[in-house]
């Protein structure tokens, strides 16, 4: 059985000393101070003196190796023994060949497919525990926030569509009620769904009320332009309905 070790680095390859120092401060406060997490790079060592990790590149695989704890791009922090694997060195080499094909460099994503995700997958195939939660907690939080934002935007759009449909049904219902009352009062035949000139004022009030209800429910988001287009289409339908003979 071979020991599996994860090497943890502070991410200090931004090209700016000020930014690098800020990241080090963040890691000291959030990891060393309160144990929440930070901005880290990780790599796995098993069989031999090299560590394996993953990063971005435009072409080819993103999987690479270097001497353990010697990655020149980052500031070394610590190592953690994750356990021991039952895989033979032959099996481990086969795993690395598979991951080299499965993790091309251009698919790298800071929030959802970074070096820490790669190490988790590698640990799973080696049969040892995954990285401690604090190593990749910031990326996971960012990914979750992005997913929640996208889901919320989709639900707001769906709610707007449903409200527009409901307002159209309500408008037609109110128009038919007005027509029926008018026919009963005047005793004159009138086609269902048509409107007399004397009722135009009432219908305009109803239309204004419905439009106000839509404007009240409209969220102040990046979809405002799209919502205005939908309201314009609704107003056009109302105008066409009033002009029917």
From TrEMBL:
<dbReference type="GO" id="GO:0006508">
    <property type="term" value="P:proteolysis"/>
</dbReference>
<dbReference type="Pfam" id="PF05903">
    <property type="entry name" value="Peptidase_C97"/>
</dbReference>
<dbReference type="InterPro" id="IPR008580">
    <property type="entry name" value="PPPDE_dom"/>
</dbReference>
<keyword id="KW-0645">Protease</keyword>
<feature type="domain" description="PPPDE">
    <location>
        <begin position="2"/>
        <end position="143"/>
    </location>
</feature>
<dbReference type="InterPro" id="IPR042266">
    <property type="entry name" value="PPPDE_sf"/>
</dbReference>
<keyword id="KW-0378">Hydrolase</keyword>
<feature type="compositionally biased region" description="Polar residues">
    <location>
        <begin position="187"/>
        <end position="205"/>
    </location>
</feature>
<comment type="similarity">
    <text>Belongs to the DeSI family.</text>
</comment>
<feature type="region of interest" description="Disordered">
    <location>
        <begin position="181"/>
        <end position="245"/>
    </location>
</feature>
<feature type="compositionally biased region" description="Polar residues">
    <location>
        <begin position="214"/>
        <end position="224"/>
    </location>
</feature>
<protein>
    <recommendedName>
        <fullName>PPPDE domain-containing protein</fullName>
    </recommendedName>
</protein>
<dbReference type="GO" id="GO:0016579">
    <property type="term" value="P:protein deubiquitination"/>
</dbReference>
<dbReference type="GO" id="GO:0101005">
    <property type="term" value="F:deubiquitinase activity"/>
</dbReference>
């Amino acid at each position: 059985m071979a020991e599996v070790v994860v090497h943890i680095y502070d991410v200090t390859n931004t090209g700016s000393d000020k930014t690098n120092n800020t990241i080090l401060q963040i890691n000291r406060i959030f990891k060393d101070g309160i144990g929440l997490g930070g901005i880290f790079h990780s790599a796995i060592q098993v069989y031999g003196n090299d560590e394996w990790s993953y990063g971005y590149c435009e072409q080819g695989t993103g999987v690479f190796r270097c001497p353990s704890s010697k990655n020149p791009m980052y500031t070394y922090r610590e190592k953690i023994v994750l356990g021991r694997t039952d895989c033979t060195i032959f099996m481990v080499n086969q795993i690395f060949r598979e991951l080299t094909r499965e993790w091309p460099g251009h698919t790298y994503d800071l929030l959802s497919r970074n070096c820490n995700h790669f190490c988790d997958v590698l640990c799973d195939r080696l049969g040892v525990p995954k990285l401690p939660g604090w190593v990749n907690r910031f990326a996971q939080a960012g990914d979750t926030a992005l997913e929640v934002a996208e889901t919320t935007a989709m639900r707001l759009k769906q709610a707007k569509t449903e409200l527009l449909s409901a307002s159209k049904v309500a408008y037609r219902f109110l128009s038919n009620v007005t027509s029926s009352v008018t026919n009963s009062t005047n005793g004159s035949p009138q086609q269902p769904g048509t409107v007399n000139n004397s009722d135009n004022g009432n219908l305009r009030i109803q239309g204004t009320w419905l439009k106000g209800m839509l404007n009240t429910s409209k969220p102040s988001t990046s979809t405002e332009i799209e919502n205005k287009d939908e309201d314009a289409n609704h107003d056009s339908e109302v105008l066409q309905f009033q002009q029917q003979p």
